[in-house]
Write a structure and sequence with these properties.
The complex is a heterodimer of chains A (272) and B (194).
Chain A: H1 3-14, H2 20-30, H3 34-50, H4 61-78, E1 103-104, H5 122-134, E2 140-142, H6 158-167, E3 172-178, E4 185-191, E5 196-201, E6 211-219, E7 222-230, E8 235-240, E9 248-255, E10 268-269
Antiparallel strand pairs in A: 1-8, 2-3, 3-4, 3-10, 4-5, 5-8, 6-7, 6-9, 9-10
Helix pairs in contact in A: 1-2, 1-3
Chain B: H1 3-7, H2 10-18, H3 22-44, H4 48-63, H5 75-93, H6 97-109, H7 122-134, H8 137-147, H9 153-160, H10 164-184
Helix pairs in contact in B: 2-3, 3-4, 3-5, 4-5, 7-10, 8-10, 9-10
Classes of the chains: A alpha+beta (272), B mainly alpha (194).
Chain lengths: 272, 194
């Protein structure tokens, strides 16, 4: 899609009036065009105003919402270790978290899960971290040096939200390079001060059925799973709480559902 | 409802939601559910799906509060935009062609979309009405049909017997003109700079 073709669609995209196939091509262009992203944000602001009407919500609806969120909490409390390998819809499985376990998959539900003891894991994980460090080829940490007007990221797709984070010069951008030779970028991570983080696939090939890429945060003698990226990753979000290691990241090829610890040589890493 | 919650900003309430404070979500609901539901009802008609959309929006906020960034805009606009997207998904998934035709007929029967009956914020309503009145009908109509009718721009082009490129251009230009008019009027909702 050319720039002019994409620019023509920005207004209709803001109104959610684009066909899915065009929306996909447009999203790919937006990932690389700050000018279009800026214009889109302006259109989205106006669209949000069009929909900003008032009036009371219907009676009884809050009770339904309350019931819904409480059923989610009860499910979380019912989880035990035997269920960790079997993710429920919409929730990534727990990786590992120590007594001060803080790294999470996409949110803060880690704090409600049953935590496992790290005592048995420490030795194996330390060895894994060392192996990852030896396999490092390079690290690039770049801070974005341009600014655009911040805008309402309301309701955006994951890609749109992630792109906003990518554009924020206050965030940290980290490239994961391929292991085994060369400096080909395989993935890119942006971390924010709030702990929200995003990862983009920049070159990871699709995996066979029954496999998934798994993202790990490494440091302080710990290796913590932070996200399952799936077998055909694009863009994903995860959370790094304050105590989560951030010195390095690695991506491994794991069985679907993920692994408690890395099961093989990483396919992409950053330096420690 | 505690006075402490009522005094909190939207952003502070979202932080509280992230810490599993249900009362914070209840306060957000109190402030913004009306707007969310009104938009969903405007798009979906007076049926239970508007309530479904409203519920989905707030449950999603509970499950993923990190999606809202207060540095990039206000919470109401965020919720309204999420609601719009979900409502449009319902419209597009509606395979009952007769139901869509009835909605289209109802929208066509009126002489343009009458915002005055929908907007509770009189100040915003006045500015928005003035801004809409200020853009040409050829720009306003496609915007209304897309945003409130749930039609893609291609469908709008067919309905108005215009080229697709013409509709794209008119929507883009119309939104640009609205933005300029609202900014000039000092509207600060959704982060529009005066």
């Amino acid at each position: 899609m050319t720039h002019d073709e994409a620019a023509e669609l920005l207004g209709v995209l803001a109104l959610h009036a684009v066909d899915p196939e065009e929306a996909g091509a447009l999203a790919a262009h937006l990932a690389d065009c700050a000018r279009c992203r800026q214009e889109l944000v302006g259109h989205e602001q106006v669209a949000a105003l069009l929909g900003d009407a008032g009036g009371p919500a219907p009676a009884g609806l809050w009770a339904s919402i309350e019931s819904s969120i409480r059923s989610v909490e009860e499910f979380d409390r019912s989880l035990d270790l035997s269920l960790l390998a079997t993710p429920r819809r919409g929730v990534r499985p727990v990786g590992t978290a120590g007594p001060d376990g803080v790294a999470t998959h996409a949110g803060r539900r880690r704090s409600r899960r049953v935590r496992r003891s790290w005592a048995v894991q420490v030795g194996a994980l330390a060895a894994t971290a060392a192996a990852v460090a030896l396999a490092v080829l390079g690290v690039q940490v770049a801070h974005l040096d341009h600014q655009i007007n911040q805008s309402d990221q309301a309701g955006g797709t994951m890609a749109a939200v992630a792109n906003q984070a990518l554009l924020n010069p206050a965030n940290t951008r980290i490239v994961l390079s391929a292991t085994g030779g060369g400096h080909r970028p395989e993935a890119e991570i942006v971390t924010t001060a709030s702990g929200a983080a995003f990862v983009w696939n920049r070159g990871l090939p699709a995996l066979a059925a029954g496999r998934t890429y798994q993202l790990w945060a490494i440091g302080d003698g710990r290796t913590i799973s932070v996200a399952l990226l799936g077998g055909h990753p694009t863009t994903d979000a995860f959370t790094l709480d304050g105590g989560a290691p951030r010195r390095a990241f690695a991506i491994t090829d794991e069985p679907a559902g993920g692994s408690i610890s890395p099961s093989g040589t990483p396919v992409a890493v950053t330096a420690a | 409802m505690s006075d402490a919650l009522a005094a909190k900003s939207d952003a502070a309430l979202v932080v509280a939601v992230a810490r599993y404070q249900e009362q914070a979500l209840a306060e957000i609901y109190r402030r913004h559910a009306g707007a969310v539901h009104a938009l969903a009802r405007r798009i979906l008609g007076a049926d239970g799906r508007a309530a479904d959309v409203t519920q989905e929006v707030f449950v999603d906020l509970w499950n993923r509060p990190e999606r809202f960034d207060p540095d990039r805009g206000n919470l109401r606009s965020f919720l309204v935009t999420v609601a719009h997207r979900r409502a449009i998904d319902y419209v597009r998934a509606d395979t009952a062609r007769s139901a869509r035709e009835r909605r289209s007929a109802a929208a066509t029967a009126t002489d343009g979309y009458d915002l005055e009956r929908e907007l509770s914020d009189l100040s915003l309503a006045a500015h928005l009405r003035q801004a809409l009145d200020g853009i040409p009908e050829r720009e306003r109509r496609p915007i209304e049909m897309s945003y409130f009718g749930g039609h893609t721009y291609r469908e709008v082009a067919v309905m108005l017997d215009e080229a697709e490129g013409t509709i794209k251009g008119r929507i883009r230009a119309g939104l640009g003109h609205l933005r300029a008019a609202l900014a000039q009027a000092g509207i600060e909702h959704a982060g529009i700079e005066p």
